[in-house]
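Protein kinase domain-containing protein
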Amino acid sequence: ASLGAGGSAQVFRGSWHGQEVAIKKITGVGHLEEMKKEISALRRLRHQRLVRFIGACLQPPQLLVVTEFMPGGSLHNRIFGPLREQRLAPERQWAIALHIAEGLAFLHARRVVHRDLKSLNILLDARGDAKICDFGLAHEMETTYIARKVDGEGGSPRYMAPECYDASHGRLTEKVDVWALGCILIEVFAGVLPYADCATMAQLSARILVERRPPEAPPGMAPPVAGLVQRCVCFEAGGRPAAADVEYELARLSCLFAAPNPRVGRV
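Structure:
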């Protein structure tokens, strides 16, 4: 059964040695290098907050990646799809936010930058626990920053930090993921898209490059969370916290605002 499609990829639900799996099928050999990079990252990076890699086939025209099946679908679909009227319970909001920060802190500790972090690339398991997926743009930092690409940086505009748009805003580092994390926290805790009032790429570019305005934390968001979001989307990359610091702060705040032990999923 098809689980969805996007860009050059289709994702199907299947079975492998008795377990349910997700099978990502890529069309076009032009994506072979991107797939190799994703598979390399998935093989090396094993963590409870990352979607588990099972296997792959890289014999054109068969380009397949097999990962664990995540029955909860994407976080984006949970917040903005058919279930959007059923808002995430507060304890689920805290758990999901903490799971994402935990996974991101793990990646950064291994000097890996995801570069396409967004709610579509956060999947939920049967308990509603969150895991990071899609490592096609992931990059290992050999120095303290990432070399820029001649043909653009890729990624998803609504979640991209200013330095991804314009080199004058600084070098590309792991802090591009922290900006994206701040955008996702807006979605998790407020149920709205970052830059929700921007409908076109032109509006989005003007907001970031001309007006120099980060995405805003909506008024209904708890002040401590809004403050954390604002730090994550600081225009100057050096002013953003490390992912591990965001994880620590979310864990601390969750003790004040959520039910006990938000790291544990709930049916």
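The first strand starts at residue 2 and ends at 6.
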